[in-house]
Amino acid sequence: MHSNYAQPGSTQTHSAQTKAPRKPFAAASGISGLSSLLRGKLSGLSGLNAGVDLPAETLADGATAFAPSMSGLSSLLRGKLSGLQGLNTGVDVPVEVLPEGATFNSGTFANQAGSRDYKLYVPSGYHGQQLPLIVMLHGCTQNPDDFAAGTGMNILAEQQPCLVLYPAQSGCANSSRCWNWFKPGDQHRDGGEPAIIAGLTRQIINEYHLDEGRVYVAGLSAGGAMATTMALLYPDIYAAVGIHSGLAHGAAQDIPSALAAMQGTTSPLAGLNKQASAQPTSSKGPKIPAIIFHGDQDTTVHPSNGDRVVAQYLPVGRVTNSKIKAERRAGKVPNGRSYTCTIHHDASGQPILEQWSIHGAAHAWAGGTARGSYTDPQGPDASREMLRFFLAHGKGEH
Known about the structure:
- It contains ten helices and twelve strands.
- By secondary structure, it is α/β, with parallel strands linked by helices.
- The relative contact order is 0.14.
- It comes from Oceanisphaera profunda.
């Protein structure tokens, strides 16, 4: 199932516009109670980084515990939303040696919803033709350089020419640089972070005259959760989605419910009808193709979340219709991990969804390189498989 592409990366700079003001991460008046709630809730969670301590609050009359509690929340998010014990999260990313003619430059995008920095890889084979675009959303504590190095997507984009866009989460929007997949204001079309990412995507498509029928979005962990939100909210932009160790759209509305979702405290298909009814009209039409990866030993985002994501992308009725069979393939990476790939087909027999369960894998990008954080070089090459899947699913081809 593996195809052959590969080689190093680069991109182009764009001017900044007026930045919209940022709102604080959480209201100061609610932090003290939330801190207590989290302290109680976390006491029963397994796999939590033992170094996380929510500090005790000794307050003057009328004071609120905003600063110390925010520190605790920042550590909590850093440890849980994209953390992996035993992995180096402070990777120093070496400077890329780019192929001649390739670029990997920085820019800033702004619209009415806010602004974000980004990096864009333009392969050496780009000469103005309509190439595909892949939007890559990093996990917590990561940045575009780290994510590009770890996934190796720029290397693949050089061999199989396409542009790769890496939006960067702002520390002002989330102190751990997590995409805010769990905040209601960032779960709707034309508002919050989805509007920023969609606007940036449209700008790059227009500026580089790219193929509008071959635009894709992928992400890891918090970035994976935001990727599925983008795909469901903007099926008019994205032709397919790749989700690695992520969560379903609308799985949480605040930090406590985010932690509950991450720990898999509900059954895999629980609440799907409620989620579906809450989704905007744009997400209720034909499902776009999806490829989903999850380690079956992930203690940061429970593997059952992969099943919830799958359920959101299957056509109505496929979740519980036992008469419809899925194709399952087992494999093993040489000297690496074994995996099971479940392939779902539409009525015409075309594959529309792949679910990869990686046996023995924790919370990390499968097949990634040690040059980036949160990677598992022993796993199947998620980047290569996503690119293969993407290029087989342009708009009008499913």
